[in-house]
Write a structure and sequence with these properties.
single chain; about 400 residues; alpha/beta; FAD/NAD(P)-binding domain; five-stranded parallel beta sheet; about 30% strand; binds flavin-adenine dinucleotide
């Protein structure tokens, strides 16, 4: 047990857009002691490493590069009276908002009346993606590439291939362009790019071949990448390349939750939350990418602000406590996740985290998305979507004593 014990009203774990937005808003709402605990030497989260546009439209009504956007969020939080403690890693979550932290003075305990978890996502390793071949140098996930390019001013390769076509893959493309790196191609297993329009136009704009229905089979090279074998509709072929950028396998940074025994949703990989963004221990809330994987910074920022309102209501004693209804059951193979998982029992309860239900697909699907509780259809919408597309649905209320809600596609 650590000997240092400190007290705050709200502790925020993670100083990215979601945590910074929540902190500033909590201060604006009159909460006295708000502290951000950030393990890096600087707050700002992922945008600090993304030296490209576009960030900031929703928050500042202008287009900013990632680091400028992050710096503005930090300044705004500090001006609001938020204490930002960098170099501070939260190592354990205890019941009722008791955190163990590690900083340059060693271990300490922070007791908070409420905790917001905003730890974002982490990228899975190449091994986890089971790409075949040797393991030569020159294979990078997007985050590492951005660290090298924007923070260390390095150019790790000249002609890499980019695997994947979601938002982050195009961020990799912009990063390459910034460093004077010219990718040989972007490859995508699906029949078109997964990022939402107009992002995929970037590849065409920069003259980078976009190869749909194409799979990476093997990476060649012993010390450095020398080429890749790809397989597409026209069969197998080689591409000469000196690097591979792997993108798109981001999972919520949820290790603390699991160790603490908080309910984790296997579908999102993040916490199981109710309409307030509240976890199975009601002292804990969550916002941003931790909830479900990568969304835009502006979206995460808005979730942080909404979480602040829910937390302020909780500190005032205005949130319903008591039994938690059972989470939504996903009842179709094309459904990847639905969040919040625990639906509200009264309309006001939904306003905290989510004005609507966020849904994503694992495979393209069309039809009618239907949410049932027993034999009662409580919400539905038309569906003609692909994976990675943001699908929103009105957040319905549920009956307390009826079966758990069931989401399906008909
Ligand atoms: C490669 C990439 C490129 C992107 N490009 C764009 C773009 O161009 N435009 C756009 O709008 N969005 C972009 N995004 C999305 C955007 O960056 C994220 O949506 C946004 O940063 C999410 O904010 P967050 O606060 O949830 O998490 P993050 O920004 O990830 O912040 C989480 C913070 O928590 C800290 N942390 C984690 N665990 C602990 C712990 N145990 N103790 C203390 N601190 C901890 C981390 O150090 C980090 O600072 C991109 C995302 C990626 C991955």
């Amino acid at each position: 047990m650590s000997e240092r014990v400190e007290e705050v009203d709200v502790a925020i774990v993670g100083g990215g857009p979601a945590g910074l937005a929540a902190a500033a808003e909590l201060r604006r709402l009159g909460v006295a002691r708000v502290a951000i605990l950030e393990r890096e030497a600087q707050a700002g989260g992922i945008p600090r490493h993304c030296g490209h546009y576009p960030f900031g439209m929703r928050e500042f009504h202008r287009l900013l590069r990632g680091p400028d956007y992050a710096a503005r969020l930090v300044r705004r939080a500090e001006a609001a009276g938020v204490v930002i403690r960098t170099g501070t890693t939260v190592t354990a979550l205890g019941p009722g908002g008791r955190l163990t932290i590690s900083d340059d003075r060693g271990l300490a305990t922070i007791r908070a009346r409420a905790v917001l978890l905003a730890t974002g996502v982490r990228e899975t390793s190449r091994a986890a993606r089971m790409i075949g071949g040797e393991k030569p140098g020159g294979i990078l996930p997007t985050g590492a590439l951005q660290g090298l390019v924007y923070l260390n001013q390095q150019k790790p390769f000249e002609r890499p291939v980019i695997i994947g076509s979601e938002l982050v893959a195009f961020s990799a493309l912009l990063t390459c362009r910034h460093a004077g790196i010219r990718p040989v191609a972007m490859i995508e297993e699906g029949d078109r790019a997964t990022a939402r329009w107009p992002v995929p136009l970037l590849a065409r704009l920069f003259g980078i071949p976009f190869l749909a229905r194409t799979r990476l089979e093997t990476i060649r090279g012993t010390r450095r990448v020398e080429g890749v074998e790809i397989a597409g509709a026209a069969g197998q072929r080689s591409l000469q390349t000196d690097g591979v950028i792997v993108t798109g396998q981001f999972r919520p940074e949820a290790s603390l939750l699991r160790e603490a025994g908080l309910a984790v949703d296997p579908a999102t990989g993040g916490p199981e939350v109710d309409g307030w963004g509240r976890l199975s221990d009601p002292a804990y809330f969550a916002a941003g990418n931790l909830l479900r994987g990568v969304e835009t910074a502006g979206w995460s920022w808005a979730e942080g602000r909404r979480a602040a309102h829910a937390i302020a209501a909780s500190l005032r004693g205005d949130l319903r406590a008591g039994d938690r209804p059972r989470p939504i059951a996903l009842d179709h193979a094309a459904l990847k996740f639905a969040m919040p998982q625990v639906l509200p029992m009264a309309p006001a309860e939904g306003r905290g985290l989510a004005p609507s239900l966020q849904i994503r697909l694992a495979t393209p699907a069309r039809g009618r998305l239907c949410l049932w509780q027993g034999d009662r259809l409580i919400a539905y919408r038309r569906l003609n979507h692909r994976p990675e597309q943001r699908i929103l649905m009105r957040l319905p209320t549920i009956e307390p004593n009826a079966p758990p809600p069931r989401l399906t596609i008909e």
